[in-house]
Design goal:
Length: 180
């Protein structure tokens, strides 16, 4: 089967992964704010929990939806940030295909936050009452890296601004103009 290449040599694909409360959404929002127009932000939580109200399981509909929106956005000339827990065993094959099919640079980052820090951060989130420590412990997957070694690990000691600076420089977004 011949797969169709997506995006251009200019488009950037960025995948931000990590456990719950690791800072993925905050980093993604800061990247988008800093870059401006021309960057699509695809949130696993939004698509899975809000749009589809689906459970995180192998073969769930949100996996294909994330893939489809990322591909469409790349083909439309947008840089793309896909962010979420994106468990390797559920999302790994899709993310690998997307990486392989993307014509431009693809960068993966795994926010590696210890369980105790995850629990502390979760307690400050608006949805802290929706699920608690028991669920977070069940969901927690230490260093759930994708096969192939294509992810940069960012530790809990990296503050938000330093993490955003790192991603912006590493991906080249810091040097690219935003769309008007």
């Amino acid at each position: 089967m011949t797969r169709v290449k997506v995006g251009t040599e200019r488009t950037r694909l960025i995948v931000l992964r990590g456990n719950s409360a690791s800072g993925k959404s905050t980093v993604a929002a800061a990247i988008r704010e800093r870059f401006g127009r021309g960057l699509a932000l695809i949130s696993q939580d939004n698509l899975r929990r809000v749009v589809l109200r689906d459970r995180d399981r192998p073969g769930a509909a949100n996996i294909g939806l994330i893939d489809m929106i990322a591909r469409y956005s790349l083909d439309a000339g947008y840089h793309v940030v896909v962010e979420g827990i994106l468990r390797a065993d559920h999302y790994g094959a899709m993310l690998t295909r997307l990486h392989t099919d993307h014509r431009g640079p693809t960068h993966g980052y795994y926010l590696d936050i210890p369980l105790q820090e995850t629990l502390a951060r979760h307690a400050t989130k608006p949805q802290a009452d929706e699920y608690g420590e028991r669920e977070l412990r069940d969901w927690y997957r230490p260093l759930d890296l994708l096969p192939g070694g294509n992810e940069t690990i960012i530790g809990a000691d990296s503050p938000l601004e330093a993490t955003v600076d790192h991603v912006m420089l590493d991906t080249g977004l810091a040097r690219l103009p935003a769309h008007e």
